[in-house]
């Protein structure tokens, strides 16, 4: 009897163990599957949970405590910032909407493009005809303080938010300029910035075209500008891309195409093969006219693509100072809730294989000294002089 009861008991134990093993195995598989779906380990997620709870319980500003969405956006920005790449960034729905309006060519603010390098928020370039240009803001000025708020260490997106505001409101921006000990203060009044991407005029027999950026309308406006100067019998073109911070990659190729008779414009090499690409020019309107290109330290990204292609194809000389040196390509990856991430997907090189990122383009004629007063603009005067020599050479005269 005892043996029979013992066997039954052992059998029950074996059965319980077997069922428990199945349940445990199923739970383990479910847990593993769940762990694979989580962005971080359960341990780190619990730390984040504890951190948020501590903030909500102890932070003195309990009345202005962020909601779930704001905490989440902050966590996303922090995760992306860990890459230490100022061009890879998370943008919340409000930022993404504002940047979309900017790329369409109109927004409110002070009129300057900014970027981030080595932890500093720098002016890439002021926009022609805007408050920033009128008060004398220059490329590479470091933004230190806006009104009474110190912005050192802030993300560039946060700085942009502070700089923007309702039209006709005033703001004082304090900047550090290289080579000067004292901070410079600029008092500006915000206004609606209507970006005219291309401007053209005649300077004697030379067509002068100012290209301010690479937005959706730029290529069409450039075609109109070329037609305008050629209809006025321009014998050559000076293309001014100083203080042009760049923009859309496809527009850069379209712009280069207007001056190149085919050929490679830019090559891209990424970690993922699908982003490895070589982009070529199509024959444009001004492939035969003599060309001189103006660049400076405010010429970045798409400007450098165009200038690099023109220089490498020996289409025309570059005049000015070394360009900014942004040779990285970003692509926008949409996220749910109308947010997004700009991710650096590739590095680009000029047709001859030159890497531009953090190096910039060196002009054929290095000239310092730009000015809003045309007669005092040494770079422009040099470009016009080079153009006259090129035209004289093409006509068979002696230089």
Task: Give descriptors for this structure.
Pdz3 Domain, five-stranded antiparallel β-sheet, 399 residues, six-stranded mixed β-sheet, 2 domains
General description of the model:
The protein is α+β, with helices and mostly antiparallel strands. It is 36% helix and 25% strand. The chain has helices spanning 2-37, 42-58, 68-81, 93-104, 131-135, 156-163, 218-231, 249-257, 302-312, 378-394, and strands spanning 89-91, 106-109, 112-117, 120-126, 142-146, 149-150, 170-176, 184-189, 191-194, 198-203, 206-211, 236-240, 264-270, 277-280, 291-295, 318-320, 328-334, 340-349, 365-366. The strands form five sheets. It has a six-stranded mixed beta sheet, with helices on both faces. Strands 1, 13, 14, 17 and 18 form a five-stranded antiparallel beta sheet that branches. The radius of gyration is 29 Å and the shape is globular. Mean pLDDT is 85; it is low at 1-25.
Quick recap of the structure?
By secondary structure, the chain is α+β, with helices and mostly antiparallel strands.
CATH architecture label name of the largest domain: Alpha-Beta Complex
> Quick check: average pLDDT?
85
Biggest sheet descriptor: 6 strands, mixed
Q: Please report the first level of CATH classification, the CATH class of the largest domain.
A: Alpha Beta
The number of helical elements comes to 10
**Measured on Cα atoms, how large is the radius of gyration?**
29 Å
Distance between the termini: 123 Å
The unreliable regions are: 1-25
List the helices and strands and how they pair.
Layout: H1 2-37, H2 42-58, H3 68-81, E1 89-91, H4 93-104, E2 106-109, E3 112-117, E4 120-126, H5 131-135, E5 142-146, E6 149-150, H6 156-163, E7 170-176, E8 184-189, E9 191-194, E10 198-203, E11 206-211, H7 218-231, E12 236-240, H8 249-257, E13 264-270, E14 277-280, E15 291-295, H9 302-312, E16 318-320, E17 328-334, E18 340-349, E19 365-366, H10 378-394
Parallel strand pairs: 11-12, 12-15, 15-16, 16-19
Antiparallel strand pairs: 1-18, 2-9, 3-4, 5-6, 5-7, 7-8, 10-11, 13-14, 13-18, 17-18
Helix pairs in contact: 8-9
